[in-house]
């Protein structure tokens, strides 16, 4: 019962698990599809974007399919517990959401185009869930790395809200915050749907087009 109450309520810093001062596992060296390193430092000229849009298995695939994306990795972000495990995050007592880190070349794909992929790949009005996946770890989130990203993310939210409202959807629940520490997930989660092509993918959008950017969001 204690853990269940955190499925639909974010823990405070005092309620969160204490975590640990170092990762529990090594990060995989290279992306299994793109072939580039997962960990930074990244080549000069590339930028980083962080998104939470439900189960990170399918979410990561949406982004690695986009032209101009150099690498992707999945992890935990937006919570209190340092270096959490997957089981701890799923218990709801760390405060993290499942996130995808996208490293991209802005000369090929813009941040606005990635925002379009983000909005169209999930339903951002569902609060602490995506479809049948229920819990705070499935909440919608954008964690920004610059004032320009913050401004673009907020503008895209407002534009999409107008379109969603016209289509009969409620208010967007996506949190848009400056990037908090990103803790990479266990190696078996990285590029999960490349390693397991028939694996579970809970990603599905509203079918409502986002009126920004030009990149498609087909999975």
TrEMBL record:
EC number: 1.8.4.11
TM regions (residue ranges): none
Pfam families per record: PMSR (PF01625)
Superkingdom to which the source organism belongs: Bacteria
Domain Peptide methionine sulphoxide reductase MsrA: 50-201
Keyword presence, Oxidoreductase: yes
InterPro entries with a match to the protein in the record: Met_Sox_Rdtase_MsrA_dom, Met_Sox_Rdtase_MsrA_sf, MsrA_MetSO_reductase
Catalytic reaction list: [thioredoxin]-disulfide + L-methionine + H2O = L-methionine (S)-S-oxide + [thioredoxin]-dithiol; L-methionyl-[protein] + [thioredoxin]-disulfide + H2O = L-methionyl-(S)-S-oxide-[protein] + [thioredoxin]-dithiol
Enzymatic class: oxidoreductase
Residue positions of the active site: 55
Molecular function via GO: peptide-methionine (S)-S-oxide reductase activity
Entry keyword set: Oxidoreductase
Entry's family note: Belongs to the MsrA Met sulfoxide reductase family.
Function: Has an important function as a repair enzyme for proteins that have been inactivated by oxidation. Catalyzes the reversible oxidation-reduction of methionine sulfoxide in proteins to methionine.
HAMAP family: MsrA (MF_01401)
Stated name of the protein: Peptide methionine sulfoxide reductase MsrA
């Amino acid at each position: 019962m204690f853990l269940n109450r955190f499925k639909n309520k974010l823990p405070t810093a005092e309620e969160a698990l204490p975590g640990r001062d170092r990762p529990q596992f090594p990060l995989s060296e290279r992306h299994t599809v793109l072939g580039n390193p997962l960990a930074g430092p990244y080549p000069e000229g590339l930028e980083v974007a962080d998104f939470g849009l439900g189960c990170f298995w399918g979410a990561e695939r949406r982004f690695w399919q986009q032209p101009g994306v150099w690498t992707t990795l999945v992890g935990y972000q937006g919570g209190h517990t340092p270096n959490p495990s997957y089981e701890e995050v799923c218990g709801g007592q760390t405060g993290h959401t499942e996130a995808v880190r996208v490293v991209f070349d802005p000369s090929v794909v813009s941040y606005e185009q990635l925002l379009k992929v983000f909005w169209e790949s999930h339903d951002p009005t569902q609060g602490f869930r995506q479809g049948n996946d229920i819990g705070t770890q499935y909440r919608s989130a954008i964690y920004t790395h610059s004032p320009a990203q913050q401004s673009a993310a907020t503008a895209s939210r407002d534009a999409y809200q107008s379109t969603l409202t016209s289509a009969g959807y409620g208010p967007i629940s996506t949190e848009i915050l400056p990037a908090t520490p990103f803790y990479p997930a266990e190696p078996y989660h990285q590029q999960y749907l490349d390693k397991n092509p028939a694996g579970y993918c809970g990603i599905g959008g509203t079918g409502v087009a986002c009126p920004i950017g030009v990149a498609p969001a087909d999975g």
